[in-house]
Specification:
This protein is mainly α and 523 residues long. It has 28 helices and two strands. A two-stranded antiparallel sheet has the order 1-2. It is elongated.
């Protein structure tokens, strides 16, 4: 609280300690409190600093001047959004909504419409950042209606609404909104980047790789010219995904590393979290387990430090998957359980972290926990890029082996008879999970055929020759199905390539993993 001091004929406003402030507040009548809040607002406002907008708004509201507080709430929300403080954006928008009626009465019709548009747009964008796609639609629809014909807000609101539908998988609704946003946005406008990246991803899903590359390259050049680190990092992330689909794993990892460098340490931490998660997945596929471990631990810390609850399921699921490959089984199980805890507490976490956690628990023989981790089947929608239904079926098959063997066999067979997804690395995991189900069902020949399918997918594109991590997992399971000296030698060669990059504390446990230990000892 602030107190007045008029000694020496000069008026000074100074902070009182919290205990004194509470005593003073309790002893003052309401009208005097309002006067003090008004004086504080006036003193802070005289400093002409935007950083004081939220504090001034709160004092004006407490002073009973909602009309003056309302536009300052809008200003504070815009500032918080620019600094990616999305939780604060939502809080400020709620505060503004509580004084909106009185605040709008003090504004001209044009300013009233614009202020309301900003609040709805910022709320929608904050919900998008928190992965609450469906919740973002209603405020963004209001923002689009309010911004009709407005050159600054029109393209941004259309693009944000398009991205909400795109994230929720409603591509027919998303595409016209995104294209209209691009048509209206000025050349070089930052609003173009998000629209182009979403259109590029939809082009990828439709198999139009050349269109996707053109859009992403244009976005990269525009972001670089504008000096936008966040925009450039997002574009490089999109190109990395394209390169992974093309089988160019090394290039994909290089692009992700460049994107991470752009954002470390003070870039958009939500974008950086997505980049780190993708890099961890690809590094595991490549067999770069030491680097992946560093990133996975850093991702958990990043998500915790910035309160990104929606990212923690993914972070812990990736960490659990990685620890399993390193042979740290107790820690892997703990990470998988953590992923499940946060996934159940976060509606926007998505199906993928839960499925990855279920796979880890299946590997550890924790069947009951694996079933608990599985996402609802209705949440797993189709996509030609990574075929989520086949992933779901293959992991489910492993869990049903003991209780419903016929169902397990049917699920594994169905997953194996589907066309391979565009992202070959995911196709390899589907083949591995289905093969493991067949192996546990006592069908080693069918299991070997599944593992060979995975190895064939790895060899289908030249650059996937660097996918030592996935190649190792397939060979270990193939050797378990039917021991073979040539396969053991292949395991030994891959392990020797991977070992130098492992930290010392992980190397010993990695060599002692079942399947690896036997292959190395058989030399």
């Amino acid at each position: 609280m602030l107190l007045r001091n008029t000694e020496g004929g000069e008026e000074e406003v100074r902070l009182a300690d919290p205990c004194t402030a509470r005593v003073v507040r309790a002893s003052l009548p309401e009208d005097r409190l309002r006067e003090l809040h008004a004086a504080v607002a006036e003193a802070l406002g005289a400093r002409k600093r935007r950083t004081h907008a939220l504090e001034v708004a709160r004092h004006l509201r407490a002073a009973g001047d909602a009309g003056a507080a309302y536009p300052l709430y809008v200003q504070a929300a815009r500032r918080a959004a620019r600094e990616a403080r999305y939780g604060e954006v939502l809080d400020v928008c709620d505060a503004a909504a509580s004084v909106r009626a009185d605040g709008e009465a003090a504004l001209s019709p044009e300013d009233r419409l614009r202020a309301g548009c900003w609040l709805d747009l910022l709320r929608g964008e904050a919900l998008l950042a928190r992965r609450a796609w469906d919740d973002a639609v209603a405020p963004l629809e209001r923002a689009v209606e309010a911004a009709h014909g407005e050159p600054e807000l029109g393209p941004r609101t259309l693009g944000a609404l398009g991205r909400a539908h795109y994230r929720a998988g409603r591509y027919p609704e998303a595409e016209p909104l995104l294209r209209e946003s691009l048509r209206l946005a000025a050349p070089g406008s930052p609003d173009r980047g998000g629209a182009m990246r979403a259109l590029a991803d939809m082009a990828l899903r439709a198999g139009r790789l050349a269109d996707a590359e053109r859009l992403l390259t244009e976005t990269l050049f525009a972001s670089t010219d504008a000096g936008s680190r966040d925009g450039e990092a997002r574009a490089r992330r999109g190109l990395a995904h394209l390169r992974a689909i093309q089988g160019r794993l090394r290039e994909s990892l290089e692009l992700l590393g460049q994107a991470d460098d752009l954002l470390a340490p003070d870039g958009d931490y939500r974008v950086r979290a997505g980049i780190m998660a993708r890099a961890i997945e690809l590094e595991m596929a490549a067999g770069r387990l030491g680097s992946a471990l560093y990133r996975a631990e850093a991702l958990v810390e990043l998500a915790r430090r910035h309160g990104m609850g929606e990212r923690l399921p993914e972070a812990y699921a990736l960490l659990g998957d990685l620890l399993l490959r390193l042979g740290d089984f107790d820690e892997a199980e703990d990470a998988a359980h953590q992923a499940l805890v946060f996934a159940k507490a976060t509606d926007s976490a998505g199906w993928d972290p839960r499925l990855r956690a279920a796979r880890v628990l299946a590997d550890l023989g924790r069947v009951h926990d694996g079933f608990a981790a599985l996402p609802p089947a209705e949440d797993v929608g189709p996509s030609p890029v990574d075929d989520p239904p086949a992933q779901f079926a293959a992991v489910s098959a492993r869990l049903f082996v003991a209780s419903e063997p016929a169902r397990a066999r049917d699920l594994a067979t169905w997953a194996l008879t589907r066309p391979a997804p565009m992202l070959s690395l995911t196709g390899v995991r589907i083949a591995q999970d289905a093969g493991l189900a067949m192996l546990e069902l006592g069908q080693p020949d069918a299991a070997r055929a599944a593992f060979k399918r995975g190895l064939k997918l790895l060899g289908a594109a030249d650059a996937i020759e660097g996918a030592d991590g996935l190649r190792l997992e397939l060979m270990v399971e193939m050797n378990r199905a039917a021991p073979d000296a040539r396969v053991s030698e292949g395991i030994r060669q891959v392990v020797e390539r991977m070992m130098p990059a492992l930290p010392a504390h992980a190397a010993e446990r990695f060599r002692a993993r079942p399947g690896i230990r036997e292959a190395l000892g058989a030399r």
